[in-house]
């Protein structure tokens, strides 16, 4: 992949401490890990409603691909607005946008990476798709599994991880961050071979 093309990696979640530990916020956790790897903290962007980190992926001292990490500072069903604003500001096409999000249909501690597709009832993806006018962006789908028993999926995504899951979560977040890096540096096929469980 071309090194001079800029990528936008959007971590999906809900802002504020109330939501911080929720399954729905795993996208924020993954972009936090990527920002730690870049050695830069998030800061407010002048386009508003998002925090960003700009940098290059890869080994320090080697000029890897340029990325903008973004955490929209709005609720999940509105993330399309800030995503579109940042894509326009940085002149990034949808095929260089990566959404990192929770996925009910994938078991916890597994993931899938793909290009395009529907929104599968995910309000964040629905919002991005609507704002960009296309579904042809990359998705790093971090599995959270289905709710136990008869729990409503909407309640499940807005609940905290279990104690057992919290022990595994840092490894899952780390792996998802690796998947984002691999996607941008080595392409979709290599990423799917390595990470699609």
UniProtKB/TrEMBL annotation:
GO terms for cellular component: cytoplasm. GO terms for biological process: protein quality control for misfolded or incompletely synthesized proteins; rescue of stalled ribosome. Pfam families: Pept_tRNA_hydro. The keyword Protease does not apply. One of its GO terms (molecular function) is peptidyl-tRNA hydrolase activity. Keywords: Cytoplasm, Hydrolase, RNA-binding, tRNA-binding. It catalyses: an N-acyl-L-alpha-aminoacyl-tRNA + H2O = an N-acyl-L-amino acid + a tRNA + H(+). It is an enzyme of class 3 (hydrolase). Gene3D superfamilies: Peptidyl-tRNA hydrolase. Monomer. This is Peptidyl-tRNA hydrolase.
């Amino acid at each position: 992949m071309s090194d001079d093309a800029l990528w936008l990696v959007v971590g999906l979640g809900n802002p504020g401490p109330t939501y911080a530990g929720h399954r729905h916020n795993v996208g924020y956790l993954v972009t936090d890990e990527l920002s730690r790897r870049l050695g830069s903290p998030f800061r407010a962007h002048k386009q508003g409603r998002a925090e960003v980190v700009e940098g290059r992926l890869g080994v320090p001292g080697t000029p890897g691909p340029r990325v903008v990490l973004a955490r929209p500072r709005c609720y999940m069903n509105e993330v399309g607005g800030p995503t579109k604003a940042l894509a326009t500001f940085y002149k990034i096409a949808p095929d260089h946008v990566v959404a990192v999000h929770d996925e009910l249909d994938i078991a916890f501690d597994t993931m899938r990476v793909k290009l395009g597709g529907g929104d599968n009832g995910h309000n964040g993806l629905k919002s991005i798709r609507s704002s960009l006018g296309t579904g042809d962006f990359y998705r790093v789908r971090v599995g959270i599994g289905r709710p136990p028993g008869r729990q409503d999926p909407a309640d499940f995504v807005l609940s905290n991880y279990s104690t057992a899951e919290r022990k595994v979560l840092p490894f899952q977040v780390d792996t998802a961050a690796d998947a984002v890096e691999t996607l941008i540096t080595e392409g979709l096929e290599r990423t799917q071979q390595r990470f699609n469980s």
